[in-house]
Design goal:
Elements lengths: L1 H11 L1 H4 L1 H11 L1 H28 L11 H18 L6 H6 L2 H16 L3 H23 L10 H27 L5
Length: 185
């Protein structure tokens, strides 16, 4: 799990710690080659992290036993997390126009929510690593040159909200068990 987290979050941290180097590599390799390499390394890292996380769950070390009620808090926090995630991809929505980096904020909310309801050492490492990365990435992104302003439209925002709620419903009630092996409630 640790090797996967270091690989996945490491490659996603290049803009945080070496943005100039990243630009040089893109210039040398070409944008498509850089994206292909980035994608392959990311997929391998994420697969290792998820596999390791699953292995950790077989023989957990408990740090704390969260109250059962926190599962409801996670379920509620995941609604804005999914809306933020969808906002990263839907053009012309007010959420992306206002926040600038909704996917990173979605990761923050997702990781924080899952830290609330999971008390195993592996959970704390897994979700804590994502939360720390999201905090650092958001801070670094705020320091970079802002993207040109987006013309937000009500239709884009409506699509974002509806799409986020649909994605939440599908994942929470149908895909979470299939992906994680754990029911939401």
């Amino acid at each position: 799990m640790i090797v996967g987290l270091v690989t996945f979050l490491g490659v996603h941290s290049i803009r945080i710690v070496a943005d100039d180097w990243r630009g040089e590599q893109i210039h040398k390799m070409g944008e498509m080659s850089w994206k292909a390499l980035f994608s392959v390394v990311s997929i391998v890292g994420l697969a290792l992290a998820i596999w390791g996380y699953g292995r950790m769950r077989l023989d957990p070390t408990w740090v704390w036993f969260p109250p059962t009620g926190l599962r409801h808090a996670v379920a509620l926090l995941m609604i804005p997390a999914f809306i933020l995630l969808v906002a990263a991809y839907v053009p012309n929505n007010h959420i992306k126009a206002k926040l600038g980096h909704p996917m990173v904020l979605a990761v923050k909310v997702w990781a924080f929510a899952h830290l609330l309801a999971n008390g195993r050492l592996g959970d704390i490492i897994f979700f804590g690593a994502f939360l720390l990365w999201a905090v650092l990435d958001f801070r670094a992104a705020r320091r970079r040159q802002p993207a040109p302003p987006v013309a937000a439209r009500p239709a884009g925002t409506a699509i974002t909200l509806v799409g986020g709620l649909i994605a939440y419903y599908l994942f929470a009630f149908h895909l979470h068990v299939w992906v994680t092996g754990v029911p939401v409630m």
